[in-house]
Amino acid sequence: MSDSLKNIGVKVEHTPAPSAKGGQEKQVIELYESRKKVYPRSVKGIFNNWRIAFVLLTQLVYFATPWLNWNGRQAVLFDLVNRKFYLFGLTIWPQDFVYLAAFLMCAAFGLFTWTTVAGRLWCGYSCPQTVYTEIMLWIEQWVEGDRNKRMKLDQQPMSFNKLRIKTTKHALMIAFSLVTGFTLVGYFTPMHDLVAALPTFSYGPWETFWIFFYAGFTYLLAGVMREQVCKYMCPYARFQSVMFDADTLVISYDEKRGEARGARKKGVDPKTLGLGDCVNCSICVQVCPVGIDIRNGLQYECIGCAACIDACDEVMDKMGYPRGLIRYTTENAMEGKYTESQIKNRLLRPRVVLYSLVLVAIVAAATTSLAMRKPFKVDVIRDRASLVRETDEGWLENGYSLKIINTSEQTRRYRISVTGLPGIKLEMDKPEVEVKATENETVGVRVQADPQYATKGSHEIHFRIETVEETPVVVEEKSSFIGE
C-alpha cells in the first residue's frame, strides 16, 4: 500500500493488528513525497549552448517587440478597449477571431507533431517555465556561487552574511519578475504610455493588477517552485506519453554499454574489471534541473533539456571513452531493431504524417483566408425602434445603421447603394463615407421603397458598399425591408 500511494495525496494513519509485544503500533504513510531541493550543477556543451541561445532569443523577442513601431503606432498591440489586435500590418477585429482559433490549432498540432518526432524539445528549450527557471538559476549562481557553495550556504545557520546574500538573490529575482510583468502589460497598453506613467505610477486598476499578478507568478513558479511545476502542475508532462512511440527521439541511457557501473582509474580497461562505461559519477543527476536519474529510464518528469548528455559526454572525453552513453535515440534503435543512422528514415510514419497533414491543412486554410480577406468589413443593423414609416411622397421607409470597419493601413472612402426591390432608393447625409486607417465609422441611412412592391412582411434587400478607387473593392451585406 505505501509504495502505490507514495506520490498521490495526504498523510494517512492506521493502527495494525497487535504487535508481538502485546501493544499496538501506529504507522504513518506519507502519500506526498517530500520535496528535496534541487541544486542543478553548471554544465558546458552543445545542448547547453542551444538552451542559452533559445533563452536569449525568446527574451529578446518578448522584451523588444512592444517597443517596435509600425505606421506611427505600436507594431504589436492587443487593444482590448477598442477591440482591435495589431500585428504589424495586420489588424484583427472581433469578427476575425476565427484566425485566433486557427493559430491555437496550429500551435497544438505543431506541438503534437514535434513531440511525436523528437519528444519534449519544447519543454527543454522554449517553454516559458524552463526559460524563466534558467534565468532564475543564472541569478542564483551569480549571487550564491556554484552548486557546492549553494548547498553549503543553505546548510549554514542564519547569519548577516547569509541574510545579505539571500536578500540580494531574491531582490534580483523579484526585480526581473516585475520587468516581465511590466512588459506583458505593454502588449495591451501602449508601452510608451506605460513608461510615461511610471514615475508617478499612475496606472489603472487592471494595469496595476496584471503587472503584479504576472510578476508574482513568475517569481513563484520560476524562482521558488521550479521543477515542481513540471512534475506536478504541467498537464503536458502527463499526456505526452500518448504522442510517444518506439520511434520517438528521446534522451536515453545506453544500459547495455554503461552497466555495470563503478569507479575506476583513467586508462584502465573497464572490461577487465567487469564494468561498463558508466563511472557512476552521478554528474548526470547533478546537472538535471528536475533532479531525476536518467539511468533509471525515461520518466515523465524529464523535460528533454539534454543537460545530462552534455555532462556525460564531458566525462566520457576525460575518460577517453566514446561519447553517447547518454544520447538522443529511439527505443527501437536502443533495442537494435535498426541502426541509429536509420532513425531519420522512421520520421515519415503514419502518426507523424497524419499530424503534419492536419497542420499543413490548417495553415493553408488560414493563410488563404487571410490573403483573400477584403480590406474592410460591414455590419448592418436595422433600426428596430421604428420599423417602418411613410414619407411625404407616400413611400415606405426603413432606417439602418451601417458600421464600416476599415481593416487596412490607409484611409479609404466608400460609396453605398441598395438593391432588392424595384425602384428602391437610399437616402443618406453624404454621398461618400470616409473611414481612417484601422478605424470604423457608423453611418445612418434610410431606405425607401414603393408600397406596391414593399407589401406587408419582410423583403430581402442587399447593401452594396464599394471603395472609391480605380479598382474598387465591393462588399455586399444582406438585410431585410419591412413593408406595411
TrEMBL record:
InterPro entries in UniProt: 4Fe4S_Fe-S-bd, 4Fe4S_Fe_S_CS, Cyt_c_oxidase_cbb3_FixG, Electron_Trans/Redox, FixG_C, Ig-like_fold
One Pfam family cited in the UniProt record for this chain: FixG_C
Alphabetical UniProt keywords: 4Fe-4S, Electron transport, Iron, Iron-sulfur, Membrane, Metal-binding, Transmembrane, Transmembrane helix, Transport
Keyword Membrane: yes
Residue stretches making up the 4Fe-4S ferredoxin-type domain: 269-297
GO cellular component: plasma membrane
Gene Ontology molecular-function annotations: 4 iron, 4 sulfur cluster binding; metal ion binding
TM segment ranges: 45-65, 85-112, 171-188, 208-225, 352-372
SUPFAM superfamilies named among the record's database cross-references: 4Fe-4S ferredoxins
NCBIfam families hit by this protein: ccoG_rdxA_fixG (TIGR02745)
PANTHER family on file: FERREDOXIN-TYPE PROTEIN NAPH (PTHR30176:SF3)
UniProt protein name: Cytochrome c oxidase accessory protein FixG
Protein species of origin: Gulbenkiania indica
Lineage: Bacteria, Pseudomonadati, Pseudomonadota, Betaproteobacteria, Neisseriales
